[in-house]
Amino acid sequence: MDTIKSSAEISQLFSSGKRIGTPYLTLIVRECANDAAQSDDRRHGPQGRVAFIAGKKLGNAVWRNRAKRRLRAVCHDLGGPWTGYDVIFLAKSPLCQASYSKVLKVCGDAVARLGSQGKRHQ
Q1: How far apart are CA 74 and CA 99, in angstroms?
Q2: Is it true that the peptide bond before 81 is cis, omega within 30 degrees of 0?
Q3: Nearest-angstrom CA–CA distance, 82 and 118
Q4: 21-70 pLDDT, tens per residue?
Q5: What φ, ψ does residue 9 adopt, rounded to 5°?
């Protein structure tokens, strides 16, 4: 799974990405540009990338690590990363208290709204 590691790229996604909210997490999505002027997208290619964020204000290190493990599992089960999209999974506080099946269903509905569920990176 190719992840977004640069804080500059994450900041750019926060400012220009489309937000899809759920009770358990927020998806921040941006379509990868095929324009030659986009050096970062060209360097990483058209395959999709993901980032998993659990902020400090939501809990201690144990909670944040559990939330990120759950976000990675949700992304994997939904078929991510998605070709042509950069996606940030941003955890919300109820993520770890809800059942995994409920989180997966809600996130699956959010990905379906994105319209890219069938575009899986091979």
Answers
A1: 12
A2: yes
A3: 8
A4: 999 999 999 987 654 344 444 455 567 899 999 999 988 999 999 999 99
A5: -70, -40
